[in-house]
Amino acid sequence: MVEIRFHGRGGQGAVTSAEILALAVIEEGRYAQAFPAFGAERRGAPVLAFTRISDEPIKIRIGIYEPDIVVVLDPTLLKSVPVFSGLKDNGLAVINTNKGAEEIRKIEGAKGTLVLVDATKIALEELGVPITNVVMLGALLKGKPELAKMELVEKFIAERFPKLAEQEIKAFRRAYEEARVEG
Amino acid sequence: MKRVGIEVSIAIAEAAALAEVEVVSAYPITPQTHIVEHLAELVANGELNAEFITVESEHTAMSAALGASLAGARAFTSTSSQGLALMNEIVYITSSMRAPVVMALANRSLSAPISIWNDHSDVMNERDTGWISIFANNGQEAYDLTFMAFKIGEHPNVLLPVMINFDGFILTHVIEPVWMFDKEEVKDFLPPYEHPYKLDVDRPTSHGPVGLPDIYTEAKKQQEEAIRNSRKIIDAVWDEFAERFGRRYRAVEEYYADDAEIVLLTQGSVTEAAQVVVDEMRKRGKKWGVVELRLWRPFPFEDLKKVLCNNNIKCVVVLDRAISFGGQLGIVMSEVRSALYHEKNKPMVVGVTAGLGGRDIRFDEYVKMYEIGEKCLKEEKEPDKVIIVGLRE
């Protein structure tokens, strides 16, 4: 089982990231759960969303405390939220940043393989808004391609954003191309 | 049947739509809201031919559902926590007037302090209202059981309301795979709803008039018999469903109970988590199991005795998700203990509670519950009161 924790800010669509990934996995015939951090959400406040992926039916339903992967949608969270908290030592941290690996490694608790992408730039150029939920899925799949099939993720991106499907998918693919995996 | 990734709330709304409910009367409340939102959408889009009654409170939601049901319409509502508490007066009246309303109850704790999160204090507060009450432990079960609830409640030998319990947020807000039916597949499973004494201007009847002391006792006795007899129909509906669609539901579900010394007795979504713990701990030599009390009302006395008094189970640890203040604390624990009272080979009954107001129950806390059972066995002491697991002191 792979457990993923998404960090975003209310309104950025972290829950949507978690959901699209789960839907793509389920469509393939495998098992997935997606759920938000339960409670009241406020625009701009740090929020969490979670995805579990497995080849077997998933029976556990508690929060994810020791994720295999963390995905950080907003670079400003790196300063205010302990995004590496509980991440497994051999885990993956997929981060929206315009900084290099050396700088990210200086963050307290930083560990695991880094996947870095300037998602805000891609989102602004392709979508015209700094909404990085779909973009970050592209970077996530670069870091761990076996999580889900690209074409199925694209199918659910198109379903979720019928009017913006073309742009969203382009941004998703661009993030996949531009993301850098740093041992 | 089609396997889809879907939010469990939406699946539950689709189960009501699959049953072609004719009246939905509901008021939004977290964490149930997505269910009635989706039904409102289906009605507004013309995909469901139903009357959606927007009401000013849950008290009215249940009142309208009751009236609709007695007038011969298939009626559905959904609520949580304070909403159910506000409904309480009419919840009791609905079963007493034998109206087979179906209610999807997204279980949530009761205030105060205000908590929108999950436990079972809402359903336990309504224990004695005369409804058939059933627990689902995942999205698939919530979907199947909601759909089947109509067939159970509306059966002419039952005519009682049914509530389906599923954990708020923990189930309602999760996207997971659910096998969903096409209308065609189930169209002859659920017969049209016919209330034999419905409100009909051409054939006038009175419902719910005053019951003087010379009749009230008999009315309650009949109601008690009705819910007791509903058990046959519940089993028959679940059996037919299993034969036709392959998914079997039982009043009491077992997991390694026939080869366990200690079992945890659960209701709702904690069941599968406990099964994961048992899988892991059996690898380490622990003879542990899980028994799920799926059917809460009518209480499955005989099934439970058969499963728990099987000579190998030495201790049953009952996990209550609500507190009865000033009593033994555990409502389910008290009932299980009393159900086994006359059995010669009964196991020790130990009560624990955890996961109140939305607190996660972690793996080590499930282990702790079984270890409490081990300790009680070793000391040969059955505690009177429930032990709270995960309490900060």
N-end to C-end Cα span of chain B:
50 Å
**Greatest contact between two chains:** A-B, 23 and 24 residues
User: What would you say the CATH architecture of the largest domain in chain B is?
Assistant: 3-Layer(aba) Sandwich
What's the pLDDT, averaged over the residues of chain A? 96
Give the tally of β-strands of chain A.
7
Helix content of chain B: 40-55%
Strand content of chain A: 15-25%
What is the CATH class designation of the largest domain in chain B? Alpha Beta
Judged by helices, strands and strand pairing, the structural class of chain A is alpha/beta
> Quick one: CATH superfamily of the largest domain in chain B?
Thiamin diphosphate (ThDP)-binding fold, Pyr/PP domains
Q: Major sheet of chain A, described briefly?
A: 7 strands, mixed
In total, the number of strands of chain B is: 15
Report the β-strand fraction of chain B as a percent range.
15-25%
Distance between the termini of chain A: 22 Å
**Which outline of chain A best applies?**
globular
Order of helices and strands of chain B: EHEHEHEHEHEHEEHHEEHEEHEHEHE
The CATH topology annotation of the largest domain in chain B reads as Rossmann fold
Rg of chain A to the nearest angstrom? 15 Å
CATH homologous superfamily assignment of chain A = Pyruvate-ferredoxin oxidoreductase, PFOR, domain III
> What does the largest sheet of chain B look like?
7 strands, mixed
